[in-house]
Amino acid sequence: MVEVRDTELDLYRLRLRLAVAMALVIVCFGLLIGRFVYLQVYRYADFHAQAEDNRIALVPAPPARGLIFDRNGVLLAENVSAYTLELSPRRAAGLDDTIAALSGIVEITPRDRQRFRRLLEDSRSADSVPLKVRLTDEEVARLAANRFRFPGVEISARLFRNYPLGETAAHVVGYIGRISPDDKRRLDEQELLSNYAGSTHIGKVGVEASYESALHGHVGFDEVEVSAGGRIVRRLSRKPPVPGSNLVLSIDIRLQRLAEQLYGERRGALVAIEPKTGDVLAFVSRPSFDPNLFVDGIDTQTWQALNEDPDTPLLNRPLRGTYPPGSTYKPFMALAALMSGARTPQDTISDPGYFQLGNHRFRDSKPSGHGTVDLRKSIVVSSDTYYYKVAYDMGVDRIHDFMKPWGFGQLTGIDLEHENAGVLPSSQWKLKRFRQKWFPGETPSIGIGQGYNSFTILQLAHATATLANDGIVMRPHLVQAIEDPVTHEKRRTVPSESYRIDLRRDYLDLVKSALVDVNRFGTGRVAFANTGYVAAGKTGTAQVIGIKQGERYDARRIAERHRDHSLFMAFAPVENPKIAVAIIVENGGFGAQAAAPIARKLFDFHLLGKLPSDVPEELLPRPIDEAELRDVPESVEPEQIAEPEPKQ
Question: 310: pLDDT confidence band, cut at 50, 70 and 90?
């Protein structure tokens, strides 16, 4: 039987299906066209901005740090360009595996690994962390040829801080180190964090820290085109960074180096000041350290060795170390006695070699005494007995009130952070500190610079400079001028006088002439024999441990670190002082034995240009040549090795 098909019905159904399909296609195309119009017309601006953001990135361009020079142009802190191998924790395919593979291309030491782990822990949000710094040209070439194997690995050109004189003046210049979380919090609180975009280091101590805002400069930005993988393709525009200002220190680095050489292996501190200006000419802390150790991150073993060294090389002795001033305090006590009316120049005492107070006998350094002593002689022969009695007659509070304007026990205001104020005792101080009243038997020792007296060598040098400057107080400072790195214009930081101490001219002249006689006929006569200038000075010896009453001090029977400190204060030439110094040689014995000869050699060099025979000229630094300055880089281009310009 043959089935008859309804052709018309089949044709109708086909046409219906085609119409539905066509309508569906038209609707779909309409939706696509509508979406296209919506995205390309109505949302064009938004998506164009997002596309540009994906293609273009702003890369911070950190500024070159300012240079540091001494007063004569000797370079103390410079910037050197070098390449560093860096890893991005977010993009590297397994840090341990990546480091292991990289170690087959360049040597990665255990110290490099330890520093990387520490920096990784301290900088969790960092885009990249240095693994190996200061790469050689050969290492750069090998890494560049193999970098395609290591996602998240970059070779970056950076400026590194370098201290060409090493340990010399390290406590003055200081050093920079990696920006820590605490540094970031502090910068954020000061609203300065944005200016440190791209920067990895900040000043930690010394003028590197106290003048951080001047040295750092202002960050710039590079607008760069990046690939889909986040790599830089080319630079589109640039807002250049503004380099930091240069610092011109008041330090004479040749005088500084000479003083450090004269200390040898001994411990101590020395500060030399120009009295009329407050310029610090030398600021010595011995022993010292190499600040270059801290720039790239100091290793654990070296850090531990520096911290556990019994000689404490990291201690800034002139700024933070405090000592009893010993007999160097006596010239100021003499002025205190004269100005308070406790003594006149003609008053005399009989010095039997001790001062008796009740049942206690305060001994003189000369057991047989000095006979009849007036004020001039008390300074020249350094009579302890005279000043025991002066101090007892004046009382601790009158002494305190006279000494305070001289800067004893006060912050000098020098341009370094963390200065120690020391202790200038008074009855109120003791009540606050120990909750005890002041006893009269505690006063005599104050008069010879012992007892509770505890001052920094900076304070003693500041007071000596004020005495040389006739009571005109100049704030001591280490930075003489701030120099614009572009125009080279210098802005002086030398302050005007702070204030004046009211002193009678005849009393001042009397004390000064007595200090001259110390170096002519007294305890400083050997060190200052046959000078070509007139110098005033005073030796001092400060006890480290007490000696029982009735016993005699014998250095040979005492451990070296328990022996007396050797001190000396001086200025010259007396008629027009150019330099004032305060010196301590820890455990060096009598002041005339260790400290005074150092002062003599420094004065000879500063005033006469004479070098000691045992210090060769080549050990003293020379000023930098202008041609050398041209080679000092101001900045480095970002990603010079990581992303070369594409060939056209």
Answer: very high
Lowest average pLDDT, out of 14-28, 224-238, 610-624, goes to 224-238
Q: Does this model's pTM top 0.90?
A: no
> In angstroms, what is the C-alpha Rg of the chain?
36
Residue 563 has pLDDT above 80, yes or no: yes
Buried b (16+ CB within 10 A) or exposed e, 81-96: ebbbbbbbbeebeebe
Rounded to 10 degrees, the C-alpha dihedral 597/599/604/609 comes to 120
Q: Is the peptide bond before 573 cis (omega within 30 degrees of 0)?
A: yes
Q: With beta carbons less than 8 A apart as the criterion, state whether 201 and 179 touch.
A: yes
- Do 431 and 483 contact (CB within 8 A), yes or no? no
Distance CA 592, CA 597 (A): 7
**Beta pairing class for 354-357 and 360-363:** antiparallel
Average pLDDT over residues 90-116: 82
Task: Specify the pairing of strand 153-162 against strand 75-87.
Answer: antiparallel
**Single-letter amino acid code for the residue at 340:** S
Cα–Cα distance measured from residue 481 to residue 100, given in angstroms and rounded to the nearest whole number: 49
DSSP 571-633: EE-TTS--EEEEEEETT--SHHHHHHHHHHHHHHHHHH-PPPTTS-GGGS--PPPHHHHHTS-
Query: Which two structure tokens, joined as six digits, stand for 159?
Result: 């400026």
Q: Which amino acid is residue 107, in one-letter code?
A: E
428 with 293: CB under 8 angstroms?
Answer: no
CA dihedral 75, 79, 82, 85 (to 10 degrees): 130
Q: What are phi and psi of 273, to 5 degrees?
A: -130, 145
> Each residue of 138-182: pLDDT tens digit?
888 888 888 788 888 888 888 899 999 999 999 999 999 989 889
CA distance 401 to 394: 11
- Collect all residues with Cβ–Cβ distance below 8 Å to 441 and sequence separation of at least 6: 357, 358, 360
The Cα–Cα gap between 563 and 593 comes to: 13
Helix, strand, or coil here: 285? strand
Percent with pLDDT over 90 in the chain: 61
**Residue 397 in contact with residue 427, Cβ under 8 Å?**
yes
Q: Which of 245, 250, 285, 327 is catalytic?
A: 327
Distance CA 42, CA 47 (A): 10
Question: What region, left, alpha or beta, does residue 639 occupy, with left being phi > 0 and alpha being psi -120 to 50 degrees?
Answer: left
List helix spans (H) across 94-233. 95-102, 110-122, 137-146, 170-173, 181-189, 206-210, 212-216
Indicate the pLDDT class of residue 647, thresholds 50, 70 and 90: very low
Distance (Å, whole) CA 108 – CA 89: 17
Q: How many CB atoms lie within 10 A of CB 418?
A: 10
Instruction: Yes or no: say if 248 and 481 are a contact pair by the CB < 8 Å rule.
Output: yes
Measure the CA–CA gap between 138 and 107, rounded to whole angstroms. 12
- Please report which residue ranges of 264-407 form alpha helices under DSSP H: 292-295, 300-308, 317-320, 330-340, 375-380, 384-394, 396-403
Q: Is 327 tagged catalytic?
A: yes
Closest C-alpha to 609, from 570, 571, 569, 578: 578
| 3-class SS of residue 125 | coil
